[in-house]
Specification:
Structural class: alpha+beta
Largest sheet: 2 strands, antiparallel
Distance between the termini: 28 Å
Strand order of the largest sheet: 1-2
Helix content: 40-55%
Number of strands: 4
Length: about 110
């Protein structure tokens, strides 16, 4: 189950079709595409380094200067301090073992 905004994108539809083909069902957790992106962003950066062994210190400068078009959004960071500058930082609440999307950094207001 993807949130409505994410599910409407062509990238998300392709992701859902590939997931269904491989696993026989649609991605269930609301955050499935973000988890996929969270794994693939550093993996793509690591591939670009072309080294057999990579540590956090090797990867961090590359991630900070990379703009990655994920399934759920565009990921980008401030090179100087690593602050997320990409699209739609999502916030979830976990209650009774279930995730509920609260909104993104633009729609939520501090309590």
């Amino acid at each position: 189950m993807l949130d409505a905004a994410t599910a409407s994108s062509a990238r998300a539809r392709a992701f859902t079709a590939a997931h269904r083909a491989r696993h026989g069902n649609a991605p269930a957790p609301l955050y499935a595409v973000e988890a996929y992106d969270a794994v693939h962003l550093p993996a793509r950066c690591a591939e670009g380094l072309g080294r057999p062994r990579i540590g956090r210190g090797d990867l961090l400068p590359t991630v900070r200067t990379t703009t990655y078009q994920g399934v759920s959004k565009t990921y980008a960071f401030e090179p100087a301090n690593g602050t997320f500058t990409g699209e739609g930082l999502s916030f979830y609440e976990v209650a009774s073992g279930r995730f509920r999307l609260l909104g993104d950094r633009w729609t939520l207001r501090p309590a």
